[in-house]
Amino acid sequence: MKGIILAGGTGSRLRPVTLAVCKQLLPVYDKPMVFYPLSVLMLAGIDDILLISTPRDQPLFQHLLGDGSHLGIRIGYAVQDHPGGLPQAFTIGADHMAGERTAMILGDNVFFGEGMGALLTSAMLGRGAVGFCTRVTDPQRYGVVSFGADGKVDKLQEKPVTPLSDWAMTGLYVVDGDAAARGAMLKPSARGEVEMVDLLGSYLAQQRLSMVKIGRGYAWFDAGTHDSLLEASEFVRTVEGRQGLKVACLEEIALRRGFIDLDRFAVLAHDAGDTSYGRYLRAVLAEMREA
């Protein structure tokens, strides 16, 4: 199955820290931010991924993630020359998609919740376009979706002054093979970018749009501001400290999803060195060998 991580943009909301490095490489507690969206795709069994970034940052992502073979997956790279809106991911990634159903996730989104991978897998098996939404206290900051009495999507709004609901669209979407062509036909909004609500609206007009509600038991962070970045880090630190389990540990996910075998995992655990991350991997290795 195919996926796209959109890690472009200027990171203007996080300046001055993003003057030297892109936000998706900033740490969310003990891992680079990009590990978190990548983990969501991997948990859903998606193993063919295109990472879209700026020309400046692409070499850094390549140095961090390589071609993905160490994780038993495939990671390719493409460039977004300038921020032109989220639907650009599908026009840039058209060759990667090759007309197939694809999941796209934003590189600054952090999701947490048991069964998140299963939710995405189910959406990948559906039809048309699927978005993921969650309740927020400040829907004016996001794309908003409202539902009719029948529970189906009724209307979409982009950063509305008067929101029709408190259901905000997250940065996780699944689209069919038509998305690249649909995206290419969109006209930029007043802010000079093509909008995701317009792309999804084209599916809604044909009754081919559905939404997955991420409710109780799940957490979502748009880690694109100083406060939300800190909140996400504190959340991950608390979860890991309480449970003794790592969030978005790519090597562990690769092992448990069957992308790599135990021998390959042992090499990765050794290479992680004498760090808390490395010690965690070696603890997982010992547990798996005893099982």
From TrEMBL:
Top-level lineage group: Bacteria
Cofactor(s) named in the record: Mg(2+)
MF-aspect GO terms: glucose-1-phosphate thymidylyltransferase activity; metal ion binding
InterPro entries named in the record: G1P_thy_trans_s, NTP_transferase_dom, Nucleotide-diphossugar_trans
Entry keyword annotation includes Transferase: yes
Major enzyme class: transferase
Entry keywords, A to Z: Magnesium, Metal-binding, Nucleotidyltransferase, Transferase
EC number: 2.7.7.24
Name of protein: Glucose-1-phosphate thymidylyltransferase
Species of the source: Magnetospirillum gryphiswaldense (strain DSM 6361 / JCM 21280 / NBRC 15271 / MSR-1)
